[in-house]
Write a structure and sequence with these properties.
The complex is a heterodimer of chains A (273) and B (684). Chain A is of the alpha/beta class and 273 residues long. Helices cover 41% and strands 17% of the residues of chain A. Chain A folds into two domains: 177 residues, Rossmann fold; 89 residues. The chains are: A alpha/beta (273), B alpha/beta (684).
Amino acid sequence: MLAEIKTLTPILERPLTAPYYRPIGEEVALFEAAARQRLPVLLKGPTGCGKTRFVEYMAWKLGRPLATVACHDDLTTADLVGRYLIVGEETVWLDGPLTAAVRMGAICYLDEIVEARKDTTVVIHPLADSRRLLAVDKRGELIPAPAEFMLVISYNPGYQSVLKEIKPSTRQRFVAIEFDYPAADIEAEIVATEGGVDVECARKLVKLAELTRNLKGAGLDEGASTRLLVHAAQLIAAGIAPQTAATAAVARALSDEPDMSETLDDLVRAVFG
Amino acid sequence: MSARRLFAHELEEALDRVLYASPSHRSIERLALLLEPLSRAQQDLVLHWAGVAAQTYAEIGYLIASLAPQVFARLDERDFAAWVIHGLDTYDKQGLRPAMEVLRDFEGFLAAKEGRAFARFEEVEARLSRLIQGLSGRPLSLRIGPYPYTDTETIFLPERIGQYAAHADNRRLYQALAVRLWAQARFGTYRADLTHALSQYADRELACQWLCCLEAMRLESCIARELPGMARELARLRSPWPDELACAARDLQADDADISVSLRWLARLMEKNVLPPPLTGLGVLAPELAQRVRDARIEKDTEILRRALMQSLTPGERKARMTTQIDAQRGVVEIRIDGEAVWLAPEAQEAAQSLIQDLGELPPELLAPAGPAEGKLPQPRQRLAEPERIEERRADFYYDEWDYLRQAYRRGWCHVYETEGKAGTGDFVRETKKRHAARIRQLKKKFEAIRGEDRLLGRQLEGEEIDLDAHIEALHDRKSGAEPSARLFARRQRNERSFAAMFLIDMSGSTKGWVNDCEREALVMLCEALEALGDAYAIYGFSGWTRTRCDLYRIKSYSERYDEAIARRIDGIEAKDYTRMGVAIRHVTRLLAAQPAKHKLLVLLTDGRPDDFGDEYRGVYGVEDTRRALLEARRQGVRSFCVTIDRAGQEYLKHMMGPAAYVILDDARKLPLKIAEIYRRLTV
């Protein structure tokens, strides 16, 4: 039966060029060791601090293909594992990104895992312990993961909602690497490199981010992320006045609330005015 | 009503009525004579506002009436009302005496009004405090003070600023002052013993003014390093630096300049014996006040940090060596004892950062042994513990209340105490369950049916599975030449109910007896039904006695499960005192709004109109406040519904519940049977 059904597996590409990544601590060595020891990795940290970029960088460094899945609250097991399709009169099986990654020995990165439906975690459990197996129920197939396969998930502990907590049974299968916004000098270096602005300007953006991070919990859910700073820098590099760029890419991006916007404008003025 | 002027004897009568607690009848006679020459419209206005004010405080009402003739000579009718409200606001915030002063100073009020240029503390407070929070360093609060200064924990700003003609400029000056004072606390103006330093000069006042100038110059360049935009703004808002400072500029603006540089230059300037120019907008130095606050804080922080460090030391190693490292970029303090990094709890980390901000380093006595006999700082420990014990219990929360007469909020007016509801025996609940067993079974079944469950949707364009029926049909269609459908998949659709409910129960004295029984019965039925449904829900009871004692009883919080303990608390619900409804609604709205559910529903169970001890809350005031609270709830995404057992309530309910919906039960006995059904109707 299995042999008769055509199976489609998406081809995952190996990254050819090195993505820019500025190591902060020992995360690269940790990740490499985990990869060698076939351990799954959990990346913790606030939004826009470089988790996804780090995984891309590591995929390039290890020379492995990468399948990234941005999890959302309607993500089902089928979206990860695969599904039957009908092509003409024929039934075809299409591998999901997780299955494709297992077959190819790739890195599978599930971004913001807590956003996914709870049942999806069940399918990653056997992959994340010593069994290293993917069960494809609908095909009655058990795929053992090759040595190169690696499971990476990310999670933002900043969301305090009880619904968005990661279960201990999931959490305790992973090696956890903690991320945070980098120290000011390093962050300025990143913003300057990625955004194409001079260090002086990057420093100002980082200062602004610092001010907004002080407001976390006092009206803001999160302060400005490194990603937002890079956006602002890119706008500046494209010829927009720094104050305008910071207002658009940072202040407006952080809050819709009039009072908070006013304060963010004050902060932008304090740095760029 | 005739537009004829009231005569003195008529005024006397009216004044007697509104100023029920007047000092003496003689004074009322005099007052009436004073008011006689006013126009009728003015007389009416005086009577109205004096009455309103007298409800807050009789003496204020009297003062308003007696000042009225002079005030009307200067203010028109609209400003008259504004003047009164301004006085009452002052009373709420600062008490009787300042309120009387503010009212007497109607010329000042007029100046503010005419110029329309004054920026007021209230209008800038929220924005400034967010700004100060955004700037790093120890959190500082904002308060009104006689002059602009900081004691390193609070920034005091004047109540109003009218230096510039334009309102916007005065607001900017507020900001500039707040930032300069923040910088005093942030960049160590009070790190040196200024009281001692200034006492060396014969003219201490002059020295203090010069030091303030020097510090302003130094701090401005500190600010410029981090916040260039802000520094430019500060420079725009001050007059040029005096010539005497020109030679000090280089020293003061150096990267590592601290307060000692300012003090050195102070000595040189004082030798020259010149007067400082009248520089405004720089704030004022308050060495004594700041010193006191700072010393107390250092003592407290040292103690907190020391306790934290002692815990990480084993008793044997008393003579450990401590090294400190400050991660300047993150502001995190890392402490190593004998080379080993110590983990600091957030509280201790905060204390360490605060100490570094105050002292520039951590005090060496931190590692002094903990035992009081050996310690160098034995006192703070004892002094620290005591206030905790003798401190009276403060209110858990403070809420604003809407005063319809003033058309303004009274800030922090109601004091809320939240406690766990008293536990009863649970017999009542058991009995109710037994008595209504059949009804409860029925309810459960009904509620289970509407419980959100996943459904498999067939014939979809895409989905996790193939819909076999659709597929076979399509094959058949194709064979017979018809156009086959492309909808061949099945998709699981989540049908998640996302409701959070809050039940607010009136526990006022009037519910005593069978109304209370019915409420409790209704709660039992509700809990049973809601357990079947799986919605998040909480139950709070409220009662109180004046604005300073608003009690909220937690019967069931969102995180608690419906179990024996909850049943006991339902049993323990009893009739207590009064019904100050607005504040109770505000409190539970806050709890409800924090729930993650998509839909939020507040159900209010009450037997009558809002009421509290004393005359103030009774009547229109309470109804308007409650209405306002419900409006606020709606703005926060909370829908409210009122179930009331009050046949007389029809006329005010419609107005009060305007923002909500309501149902009136003419018989409390119907409540237990109806309540679950009402809830079901509201949520499906």
